[in-house]
Amino acid sequence: MKSIVLFASGSGSNVENIAHYFEGNPNVSIACVFTNKRDAFVIDRCNTLGISVFYFNKHSFYTTALVSDVLKCIKPDLIVLAGFLLKIPAEIVQGFPNKLINIHPALLPKHGGKGMYGMHVHRAVKKDNATESGITIHYVNEYYDEGAIIQQYRTGISEQDSAEDIAKKVQELEHIYYPKVIEELLFKD
Ligand code: GAR
């Protein structure tokens, strides 16, 4: 049995999609969703889905070993960031080599870095008159959006597309490909 821990601090559509993808799979379990936002909609989704939630605050994340210690107890095969916006402390990055991945809603190295999340990314893509965007699934290191790229998937953008249209196209890619890449990583050896 492989186990996954997800980190999310927003709406949680990726968490829900990943949970549905692995539903009924006896070889994969979602151990827990970690969040630093007490009012995030992802918590409502987890309550409906029957997934445990572990809440921690930003201060303890950066000044104590709490999150790292809980992760070490769970011993997940993969830690999956799904709309989690805080930088991961070095202790966690180093404690889980090749086990910590993120999804970014654009084609890195473009449109990444601190402050580039959600609609900020899609507005920047629109402002650049980009003809394509997409998703980047990558390992997490100590720097925002700079870890080794695992996979990228692309979608075309037309001049008529608004930032909201781009967001919709990108989210479709996320929901199709993130669970598949997670599954591949879980069973690659
Ligand atoms: C997703 O689009 C994800 O790629 C993005 O946050 C969204 C979360 O949506 N992550 C980042 O921007 C990280 N820099 P969700 O809460 O509906 O899954």
Task: Describe this structure as you would to a colleague.
The protein has 189 residues and is of the alpha/beta class. It has one domain: Rossmann fold (3-Layer(aba) Sandwich). It is 39% helix and 22% strand. The protein contains seven helices and seven strands. It has helices at 13-22, 41-49, 58-63, 66-74, 90-95, 118-127, 163-186; strands at residues 2-7, 28-35, 53-55, 78-81, 100-104, 132-139, 149-156. It has a seven-stranded mixed sheet with strand order 3-2-1-4-5-6-7, with helices on one face. Helix 2 (41-49) links the parallel strand 2 and strand 3 (53-55). The chain starts with a strand and ends with a helix. 34% of the residues are buried. The mean pLDDT is 96. Glycinamide ribonucleotide binds at residues 8, 10-14, 82-83, 103-105, 116-118, 121, 171, 174.
Give me the secondary-structure topology:
Layout: E1 2-7, H1 13-22, E2 28-35, H2 41-49, E3 53-55, H3 58-63, H4 66-74, E4 78-81, H5 90-95, E5 100-104, H6 118-127, E6 132-139, E7 149-156, H7 163-186
Parallel strand pairs: 1-2, 1-4, 2-3, 4-5
Antiparallel strand pairs: 5-6, 6-7
Helix pairs in contact: 1-2, 1-7, 6-7
Bound molecules: glycinamide ribonucleotide (GAR).
Glycinamide ribonucleotide binds at residues 8, 10-14, 82-83, 103-105, 116-118, 121, 171, 174.
Model regions low in confidence, pLDDT < 50 over at least 5 residues: none
Oligomer kind = single chain
The domain tally reads 1
Major beta sheet, strand line-up = 3-2-1-4-5-6-7
Return the CATH class. Answer: Alpha Beta
Alpha-carbon Rg, integer: 16 Å
Number of helical elements = 7
Give the CATH H-level superfamily. Answer: Formyl transferase, N-terminal domain
The total beta strand count reads 7
Bound molecules: glycinamide ribonucleotide
- CATH architecture term: 3-Layer(aba) Sandwich
Hey, roughly how much beta strand do the residues contain? 15-25%
